[in-house]
Amino acid sequence: MKTDIILCPSILSADFSRLGEEIARLERAGADMIHIDVMDGDFVPNITIGPPVIKRLRELTKLPFDVHLMITQPDRHLGAFAEAGADIITVHAEACTHLSRTLGHIRALGAKPSVALNPHTPLDFVRWVIGDATMVLVMTVNPGFGGQSFIDAMYGKVAAVRAMADDAGIPIDIEVDGGVNSQNIEKVFRAGANVIVAGSAVFHAADMRAELESYRTAAKAAARSAIL
Ligand code: DX5
Ligand code: ZN
């Protein structure tokens, strides 16, 4: 089922003392969306930023904000993140007792609801609520840090989510997050992902624009190999 390719660099690998400039750099390099990693030191062993920072960044760009909540009590904070300017709010299935209700709450706040799965979490966590979300985020590393290696078993998981969505007739976005780079990106597209998060590969690239362009080229190559 056709879905658009969206390149969504993560600012986790940006210089946190210059986030505004870093986002402007991503915008100039051709990013479609900005991925913002929110960590609470509880759901994951790291702490990052929250609504006040996102609110200030919101004034600096029109690019959509994809806010990835790696926090144990997302329901308590959805209003604050929506109000700060999140366009997509991703909650972790493992952190939600009533996932369908949480996704409905995000939609009611005017943001797009999305659900993330840790590498070990079965697809069945989203099977019966897939119609409530606009995106499924497949974690391709254990969340908490940038710069980790892509877990190869996740190609099959991405393909399984795509097959599940196709079977349900739902053109959902499938986002991959963690360890994505120019070496594995074509395989990621071939597995069925269409929303690409990349942090260290984009920020450590000698030429950020060329790095993102190489991802678009890989998407075209993957689409061609699907036809052949
Ligand atoms: C990991 C975060 C990712 C991270 C990706 O917990 O959710 O968004 O920034 O960084 P890289 O691309 O370096 O793996
Ligand atoms: Zn993330």
Account of the 3D structure:
An eight-stranded parallel sheet has the order 1-8-7-6-5-4-3-2. It has nine helices and eight strands. With 228 residues, the protein is α/β, with parallel strands linked by helices. Strand 3, helix 3 and strand 4 form a beta-alpha-beta unit. Bound molecules: D-xylitol-5-phosphate and zinc ion. Zinc ion binds next to strand 2.
Strand count: 8
H/E element sequence: EHEHEHEHEHEHEHEHH
Nearest-integer average pLDDT: 97
Major sheet details: 8 strands, parallel
Bin the helical content. Answer: 25-40%
Span between termini: 17 Å
Summarize this entry quickly.
With 228 residues, the chain is an alpha/beta fold.
Which short descriptors sum up this protein?
18% strand, 228 residues, binds D-xylitol-5-phosphate, single chain, 8-stranded parallel β-sheet, globular, alpha/beta
Summarize the helices and strands and which ones pair or pack.
Layout: E1 6-9, H1 19-29, E2 34-39, H2 51-58, E3 65-70, H3 78-84, E4 88-92, H4 99-108, E5 112-117, H5 124-127, E6 135-139, H6 154-167, E7 173-177, H7 185-191, E8 195-198, H8 200-203, H9 208-227
Parallel strand pairs: 1-8, 2-3, 3-4, 4-5, 5-6, 6-7, 7-8
Helix pairs in contact: 1-9, 2-3, 6-7, 7-9
Zinc ion is lined by residues 10, 35, 37, 68, 177, 197.
